[in-house]
């Protein structure tokens, strides 16, 4: 795979391992700042204080508060993807992939409750980043479902059905994460098993 | 059913039909103002100008910009519920209820695209209202599913399964509305049919 573009603003990508580490510290501090205070109440000084870096260091990597927020949205999106990817490797079939992906996502949000605040606030602060996050996530799910369909595992109801399924699964995962990961806690595997039974054989008795 | 509390601030409920009409005008104007400009850029003057009422009239009914926003969240939540309720009356069984509810919701959001901006921004402006909206919506779905289960229509996997199903359905509906109602348009019945086939018999071939 191609190396992903740096989260830094244009022309400000770090050139050393030490620079990469500082950039990471700023992103982690931005997550804590935006996650706790929201975009409007957050400040660059609040971020640099949390990261224990000088104000000038911030501007070495980012142009503005908006820029670091947009970088954080892409970063959280990648973190979710990278957390889930290894969890689905032992799946027995296409629907088992979705069960493992949901269980892994539920565990991720318990430890990263701020992810909801960040992605949700992006709708207002960084609308394009918000849309890209959900579109790329849905495309990833749609590709997995299409692969399982072409193997004959899933009923083939055409392209629109595949896209409807992908967006339905994503919405399901987002709301199960909010309810059973952020607002209160429930065993991730048990929740994922119930959701997966619905996907596998439906709800009819 | 008990009469719902007035959307007006405490002690400011209108006492005449004319007052009710003015309150409605203010809420509709608030929807346009908040929907287009977002909470932070919106102003009470912007709302009264759109509603063509005097600034003092606003304060006859609401204490603040926060108060009218919170009232609008409850109002949109009720509008969704009231729009969907008659659509599900002709349902043939419990899962047909969910098909008709989704199709009706998809039609609603095409004509009320601002509903997403309002409910989503409530997470930051009126967190309690945001949570109440989703919790009451999920409770409504859970009650419908539990009724269908007790009639023997749906597989009974216990209380947690019923709650997981309700939150999964709600998330599915929210994201299908965003994708196929707000961001682009697709035939509501076709989308609802595909989603419903998944709920009814699952995805396995």
UniProtKB/TrEMBL annotation, chains A, B:
InterPro entries in UniProt: DNA-bd_HTH_TetR-type_CS, Homeodomain-like_sf, HTH-type_TetR-like_transc_reg, HTH_TetR, Tet_transcr_reg_TetR-rel_C_sf
HTH tetR-type domain boundaries: 20-80
Membrane-crossing segments per the record: none
One Pfam short name: TetR_N
GO function terms (MF aspect): DNA-binding transcription factor activity; transcription cis-regulatory region binding
Keywords: DNA-binding
DNA-binding region coordinates: 43-62
Protein name per UniProt: TetR/AcrR family transcriptional regulator
Source organism per UniProt: Sphingomonas edaphi
